């Protein structure tokens, strides 16, 4: 009987083993960078088990080649255009990952002062940074202006006025795009849709022309472009084309009003395969956008993109150890050492991640709920997964490169996991595992006299 990571995974393509495997396994979504060799899971030219043994678990393992190739796919699809890929670093903001993308020629999309400092620390060129987000503070604006960032993606009229004031205080002009909310359904999970009129993001497209006219009158602002990001994990081209049409309608109106727009920022959001989704390849998706741009006479414009998930999502896995098996009358649980604090996506969005044994065993699979050690019933990583496993085994949670470590928390005073980056047959620890004292480093012992004894 073939061990499978879950009945739904049967939709994944079957991979030809490089040598006779004791147990044939379907390809992971992160293939070919994560692949089966000699009956176990490998990342590039290293066995995953070797990394787990060396660094312990939970452990995030990333493929540098997967990240580099993903960035290259964008750059190749944009070859011959004046374009910049700004990695949306919220997807995975570990410094070494940022350094990798900076060296690959990417800029960055940031959403906080913290992300700005991380990007600078990683060697980012401030001119290649765009600053999105609905709640930028004055202090964040000031710092971004002082370091000379490329563009603020302004998300409300109120923010325009504040940015104008901050820039004038500093005696400079802030480069701005307005983030337009085109009211387009991205057909994704409601929590990660951002381009509908009900969402908090962007300036409603009906108000955008007036907003541009206002921006053009403010002396602290320099209008440079237009921006639109409609959501995340988008798996079809149609919503992008709808949004692009709305953006181009606006570009034409804004320029007819005498306001020049230098660049178009078309955001990020391209989806990846977690289970059986079939998002368009970057090349095909981009070709459709470029064709529409050309057809409408805007092909000469500078283009910015803000991809996150599609650059890193399938470039990472999380390796976790089975601590206990807990068969029960209603449900059988595999209790593993990674929890919702490490991998929040299932708890937050009921998201699916494939889960496979690092060293598959032969046998008859049983159905398990894979759960973490955190004291919440929502602390699950996978439900009803068909697995052959036992305590002490390592499991790999696939597609864990995006929105896992960057959304990890310290809940239950659990330190964050370690991270390893692999390139060929070499690996580097890029984040050491946190120890408890790391977690209370900023806390202070009680000094106030607030406790009176309740004892008689
Ligand atoms: C403004 C902005 N740009 C880019 C992204 C990146 O999205 P994704 O990771 O889906 O490519 C996001 C997240 O949805 C975002 O909010
Ligand atoms: N955190 C989400 C994506 C949100 C993108 C941010 N705008 C996820 O894990 O899928």
UniProtKB/TrEMBL annotation:
InterPro entries: Ala_racemase/Decarboxylase_C, DAP_deCOOHase_LysA, De-COase2_CS, De-COase2_N, Orn/DAP/Arg_de-COase, PLP-binding_barrel. Residues 1-22 are annotated as: Disordered. Keywords: Amino-acid biosynthesis, Decarboxylase, Lyase, Lysine biosynthesis, Pyridoxal phosphate. It catalyses: meso-2,6-diaminopimelate + H(+) = L-lysine + CO2. The modification N6-(pyridoxal phosphate)lysine is found at residue 90. The active site is at 375 (proton donor). It is an enzyme of class 4 (lyase). Pyridoxal 5'-phosphate binds at residues 269, 306-309, 403. This is Diaminopimelate decarboxylase. The gene is lysA.
């Amino acid at each position: 009987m073939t061990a499978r990571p879950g009945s739904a995974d049967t939709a994944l393509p079957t991979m030809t083993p490089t040598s006779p495997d004791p147990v044939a396994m379907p390809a992971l979504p992160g293939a070919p960078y994560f692949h089966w060799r000699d009956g176990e899971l490998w990342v590039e030219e290293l066995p995953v088990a070797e990394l787990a043994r060396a660094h312990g678990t939970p452990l995030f393992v990333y493929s540098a080649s997967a990240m580099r190739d993903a960035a290259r796919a964008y750059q190749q699809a944009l070859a011959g255009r004046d374009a910049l890929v700004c990695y949306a670093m919220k997807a995975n903001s570990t410094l070494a990952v940022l350094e990798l993308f900076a060296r690959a020629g990417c800029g960055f999309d940031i959403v906080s002062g913290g992300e700005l400092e991380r990007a600078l620390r990683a060697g980012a060129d401030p001119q290649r940074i765009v600053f999105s987000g609905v709640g930028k503070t004055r202090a964040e604006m000031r710092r971004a202006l002082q370091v000379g960032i490329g563009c603020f993606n302004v998300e409300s009229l109120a923010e325009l006025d504040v940015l104008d004031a901050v820039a004038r205080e500093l005696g400079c002009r802030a480069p701005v795009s307005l983030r337009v909310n085109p009211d387009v359904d991205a057909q994704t999970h409601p929590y990660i849709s951002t381009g509908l009129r009900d969402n908090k993001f962007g300036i409603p497209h009906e108000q955008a022309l007036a907003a541009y006219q206002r921006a053009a009158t403010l002396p602290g602002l320099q209008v440079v472009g237009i921006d639109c990001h409609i959501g995340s994990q988008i798996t079809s081209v149609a919503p992008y084309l709808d949004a692009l049409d709305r953006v181009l309608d606006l570009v034409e109106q804004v320029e007819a009003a005498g306001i020049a727009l230098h660049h178009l920022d078309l955001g990020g959001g391209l989806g990846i395969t977690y289970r059986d989704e079939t998002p368009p390849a970057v090349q095909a998706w981009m070709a459709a956008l470029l064709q529409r741009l050309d057809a409408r006479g805007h092909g000469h414009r500078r283009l910015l993109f803000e991809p996150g998930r599609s650059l890193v999502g399938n470039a990472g896995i999380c390796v976790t150890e089975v601590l206990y098996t807990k068969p029960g009358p209603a449900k059988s649980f595999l209790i593993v050492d990674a929890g919702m604090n490490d991998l929040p996506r299932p708890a937050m969005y009921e998201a699916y991640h494939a889960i496979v044994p690092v060293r598959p065993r032969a046998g008859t699979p049983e159905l398990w709920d894979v759960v973490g050690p955190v004291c919440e019933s929502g602390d699950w990583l996978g439900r009803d997964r068909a697995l052959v496993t036992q305590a002490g085994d390592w499991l790999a949670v696939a597609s864990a490169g995006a929105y896992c470590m960057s959304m990890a928390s310290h809940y239950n005073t659990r330190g964050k996991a370690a991270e390893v980056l692999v390139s060929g047959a070499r690996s580097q620890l890029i984040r050491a595992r946190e120890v408890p004292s790391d977690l209370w480093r900023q806390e202070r012992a009680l000094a106030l006299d607030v406790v009176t004894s309740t004892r008689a």
